[in-house]
Automatic annotation (TrEMBL):
DNA/pantothenate metabolism flavoprotein C-terminal domain boundaries: 187-394
Protein name: Coenzyme A biosynthesis bifunctional protein CoaBC
Record PANTHER family: HOMO-OLIGOMERIC FLAVIN CONTAINING CYS DECARBOXYLASE FAMILY, PHOSPHOPANTOTHENOYLCYSTEINE DECARBOXYLASE
Gene it is expressed from: coaBC
Cofactor note: Binds 1 FMN per subunit.
Span list, region Phosphopantothenoylcysteine decarboxylase: 1-189
Amino acid sequence: MKENKCVVLGVTGGIAVYKALDIASSLRKKDIDVRVIMTKSATEFVAPLTFQAISQNLVTTDMFQEPKAWEIQHISLAQRADVFLVAPATANIIGKVANGIADDMLSTTIMATNAKVIFAPAMNTGMYNNRIVQGNLEKLKKLGYEFIEPDSGRLACGDVGKGKLPAPEIIVEKVMSELYDKKDLINKKVIVSAGPTRTDIDPVRFLTNRSTGKMGYEIAKEARDRGAEVILVSGPTNEKKPYGIDVIDVKTNEEMLNAIINHYDDADIVVKAAAVADYKAKEVSSQKIKKGDGDLSLDFVRDNDILMLLGKKKKNQILVGFAAESQNVIENAKGKLDRKNLDYIVANDITSKDTGFGSQDNRVSIISKNGDITTLEKMNKKEVARNLFDMIMEKR
Ligand SMILES: Cc1cc2nc3c(=O)[nH]c(=O)nc-3n(C[C@H](O)[C@H](O)[C@H](O)COP(=O)(O)O)c2cc1C
């Protein structure tokens, strides 16, 4: 049986220790084997028992603690780690590792591991900006240690500034991305468009569509997890900003086109999952349109066909479109693929009640330019994204 992935979670003595409990819990729920090492200071904030109960593993706090395993524990944890996360990371642990100090279980195990070490620093702004701390961060970055940048905001001590531990889900997203097995998009640049666009009618009204952006966001995250540099051009959505992805927020068709074109020439793969408005109001009223007694008619004119323009400009990029169809799904999608010079088109039937817009799931067929049609069973959008990149990378 395949062994679960292991994250060694180093917990140091900062006020944000309580957030590390959520991190441990989320990782456990994803079937990760979580091994916690706490510094002595960390145990002043939260008892090891809490981490023990959440991780369902013994928590190590002391290098010389009994019972001693037949293996030397700091070596075995160092070897067992697939990813080594230190969250929260104090100024102290950063300083110790940067200067080769190994005087407790955590610093010694970090010194012994070959796994990727990710620090999530959290401290008072004054401490964070201290030149010694900044120097230590720079030194460790140069040596290949990774960092999750602290957030800015009001800190526990009352100061306002940089130094807050980011939300646990952001940290977990980063760790899960590191643990992802397929890294076949390293050194590739991927542009993804997602969500709807809007067309304004007057200062208070606009027209849009039912796209939630979920499919596009999953595609962007899949590309990131596989190692790509990802630019996500996003229409207005409620999706959370994903970790490690450059998100360009746009509203209109025109803004979406410009954002993609700016990065198109050096892109390797472009996936257009956005639901772009085909028409825009002929005139946008500068004043609110007042209600009258009669009906209201508005004129709309054709807006840019972004996919068509990208197809015409295409050089070596792999261009993938989406076709949301309500009838003759495959036939219409194939027509779009040919007309717009695409390499793949992902066709989905939007009349299905349990998939598509707003749903976690999708049921799609992926059609390639050589005519191959792969029809996938109903699956969640993350799995659709994985299948899409599997297909692109296999057939390259
Ligand atoms: C209430 C309290 C809160 C603290 N919060 C932080 C913090 O957020 N970040 C930090 O770097 N140090 C913080 N410290 C200081 C560390 O606990 C101290 O530097 C300690 O030596 C760190 O040890 P460790 O790195 O071995 O856990 C705090 C201390 C106290 C008493």
